[in-house]
Specification:
Elements (H helix, E strand, L loop, with lengths): L7 H6 L1 H8 L3 H13 L4 H14 L7 H17 L13 H31 L12 E5 L5 E4 L5 E4 L3 E5 L9 E12 L8 E4 L3 E5 L3 E6 L5 E8 L2 E5 L10 E3 L4 E5 L5 E4 L5 H4 L5 E8 H12 L2 E4 L8 E7 L3 H11 L1 E7 L2 E7 L8
Parallel strand pairs: 5-6, 15-18
Antiparallel strand pairs: 1-4, 2-3, 3-5, 4-5, 5-8, 6-7, 7-10, 8-9, 9-12, 10-11, 12-13, 14-16, 17-18
Length: 362
């Protein structure tokens, strides 16, 4: 590929370049960084093409100067395509050239149409998943692992097991600091009154200025939990946008519970925040939780699958607190206090017997 001779429009249409813009990985990022080191004269074209593609993918804003350059360059490309021989083995016959010229013109018009349709849609509303392909940093934690992340603005994030978060490399040119979470994370947000910090999940939008809070939003959960430790946050269903009637404001030690089924947010006035955020310090804390919740937590924490002989036991509730315990040690505590036995076979745990006599609170 003769990328050193590419125009902005060539980059826009190139599959490898598009893949890097929308789905960057270590290999493609290293390639384009090395390319720009050797051909710095192509930087403006690459930046224009990248911004143009992101705009097509519903990025919020494209500078007017970029749009003007793109419009000029597309027209210029149509005029010069017949005489260009950089990528063609020979000059096309006149009839073929006219066909190619017309096709290129139509394609350019369609690209511009998509751009402005995308711009219109972004000003109205954007589904959560539509933003997943934009050029964001991505961090994932597999089951059994956790991760500590520090963003460019100084915000600290603890990412729990089986979770994923996406965020921009830098917030400098953005009006808001927006991140996208699937799973569970604890946030200590660096205060910046001119740039609100917003956490997007598939169901909620959580906005803060500077605060500490926990969000649990696993896809398998029926309820999304937002627990505030300090500061103040506003929580709203993602589908409701900024409708003040649906915004719930949390104060310290309060919790918002969003039901995915009813689409309603319930407010818990007073909660023990330590039981919801202790995981970032190595604690598993269960405060009158059903064993179904405990089972899911153990599965993520130890990267196992737990199979229950008696499914009614999942409704039994327990209060417990563990730190630095192996899976065997945790299971032995239940085995010694309840009428169960357990067996570990690789990454599967089999529990037989009943956890509580009548399937009620213990």
């Amino acid at each position: 590929m003769h990328y050193k001779l590419f125009s902005t429009e060539d980059f826009v249409q190139d599959d490898f370049f598009q893949q890097w813009v929308f789905f960057p990985n270590e290999e493609s990022t290293r390639y384009w960084e090395d390319f720009l080191l050797h051909y710095p004269m192509q930087q403006i074209k690459i930046e224009d093409a990248r911004e143009f593609l992101l705009a097509m993918n519903f990025e919020r804003h494209v500078p007017e100067a970029v749009l003007q350059r793109m419009h000029y360059n597309i027209n210029a490309a149509i005029d010069r395509v017949e005489s260009r021989n950089t990528f063609l083995p020979s000059v096309k016959p006149p009839a073929q050239s006219r066909i190619f010229r017309t096709s290129f013109s139509i394609a350019a018009s369609l690209v511009l149409a998509v751009l402005f349709i995308g711009y219109f849609l972004i000003e109205k509303s954007i589904p959560f998943m539509a933003l997943q392909a934009t050029n964001l940093e991505e961090q994932k934690t597999p089951p059994g692992k956790q991760r500590h992340i520090i963003l460019a603005d100084g915000t600290r994030i603890w990412l729990n097991a089986g979770s994923e978060i996406k965020y921009p490399k830098d917030f400098t040119a953005k009006e808001k600091r927006e991140v996208y979470l699937d799973g569970e994370a604890f946030f200590e947000v660096s205060e910046h009154r001119q740039k609100p910090f917003i956490v997007h999940t598939s169901n909620l939008t959580i906005e803060v200025l500077g605060t500490a809070f926990n969000v649990r939003s696993y896809a398998a959960d029926s309820v999304v939990e937002t627990t505030l430790v300090r500061g103040k946050v506003s929580v709203a269903p993602a589908s409701e946008g900024e409708n003040p009637e649906h915004i719930v404001t949390l104060l310290p030690n309060q919790q918002a519970l969003f039901s995915k089924e009813s689409k309603v947010i319930a407010l818990e006035e007073t909660v023990n925040t330590e039981s919801y955020v202790g995981w970032k310090n190595g604690w598993m804390i269960f405060d009158d939780k059903p064993f179904s919740f405990i089972k899911e937590t153990l599965e993520r924490w130890y990267d196992v699958t737990i199979i229950m002989e008696d499914e009614k036991s999942l409704s039994c509730t327990f209060s417990a607190k563990f730190k630095d315990k192996t899976l065997q040690e945790v299971l032995e505590i239940f085995e010694n206090t309840e009428s169960i036995n357990y067996r570990i076979d690789g990454d599967h745990v089999f529990i037989s017997g009943r956890l509580c006599q009548y399937g009620s609170s213990n």
